[in-house]
Write a structure and sequence with these properties.
The longest helix has 30 residues. It is built from five helices and 13 strands. The strands form three sheets. Strands 1, 4, 6, 7, 8, 10, 12 and 13 form an eight-stranded antiparallel beta sheet that branches. It has a three-stranded antiparallel beta sheet with strand order 5-11-9, with no helix packed on it. Helices cover 32% and strands 22% of the residues. By secondary structure, the protein is α+β, with helices and mostly antiparallel strands.
Length: 274
């Protein structure tokens, strides 16, 4: 009645009086205590949930089987906060590492499709390694015969036709087979002094004239880049050089420069690294 005022008759209503400051403080304190208890419980639950995901978690089966007890407190100790944070971060990192290989798309290794990522990934790495080794082991399709500069080209020269390329180089410089093939002749030749002829795998014949020394013989198999002779000054020659000719499948002599360029060996006037 005192709350409703003087002179008001009848029974009191259900309306409650406004809470005093003391009551509000008590309610707030109760909420804080409850929140602290929940935080403390969560801090204890987090290690139990994250532990099976961490490496080595299955080493202590006895500890994993032990019952979990929860202790609610009004305050969360600083030590528990520090301990819970790295455990939660570690659990998240492990989950990310497990999910990443599954989500990342992997190309079909060796043309095999439908493989799970954990198998396709390693196979793709093996495929790349094998491709790299093949490129290093497999011989080149064609190479430059010598490092010396081109001193005379294919075509008319001094009133006659010059049927090859001349490479000026030092006496005794190595001569490399320009392509894979089989030696069909190595010995004396009119006008060249000594020459080496190689029947190449594409059906053409490579002729190396004016050589000084020969390191191959008839019937020997050679690969592109093999040293077959040395630069000489034999026969009709005005100085040490290699005379290179290319005969096509019908025996006609063709310009070696576009022939080698088509095989990935562009030639230019002047010196070039072998």
């Amino acid at each position: 009645m005192s709350l409703m005022g003087d002179g008001v008759a009848g029974r009191p209503t259900r309306h409650r009086a406004q809470s005093s400051t003391t009551d509000r403080v008590k309610v707030a304190a109760g909420v804080a205590v409850a929140a602290g208890a929940l935080i403390g419980t969560a801090a204890q639950v987090a290690p139990a949930i994250a532990a099976p995901l961490l490496p080595g978690a299955h080493d202590g089966d006895e500890e994993a089987a032990a019952p979990i007890t929860f202790k609610g407190t009004a305050e969360l100790p600083v030590e528990e906060v520090k301990a819970a944070a790295p455990v939660a971060e570690a659990a998240q990192a492990v989950a990310t590492q497990v999910a990443a290989p599954i989500a990342a798309p992997v190309a079909n290794p060796f043309g095999i499709g439908g493989l799970p990522p954990e198998i396709a990934g390693p196979l793709a790495q093996v495929e790349q390694i094998l491709k790299g080794a093949q490129q290093q082991i497999a011989p080149a399709a064609a190479v430059r015969p010598v490092a010396g500069e081109i001193s005379s080209g294919f075509g008319s020269r001094w009133g006659e036709f010059h049927y090859g390329l001349d490479f000026a180089d030092q006496l005794g410089a190595p001569i490399h087979s320009v392509s894979n093939g089989t030696v069909i002749e190595a010995g004396p030749a009119s006008g060249f002094g000594l020459w080496v002829r190689v029947q190449q795998d594409d059906g053409t014949v490579a002729v190396y004239g004016h050589v000084n020394e020969m390191f191959v013989h008839e019937g020997q198999r050679v690969n592109a880049g093999d040293v077959i002779a040395t630069v000489g000054n034999r026969g009709n020659s005005t100085g040490p050089h290699l005379h290179l000719e290319i005969w096509d499948q019908g025996g006609s002599k063709v310009d070696p420069m576009p022939y080698l360029a088509a095989k990935g060996v562009p030639l230019q006037w002047g010196p070039s690294a072998h």
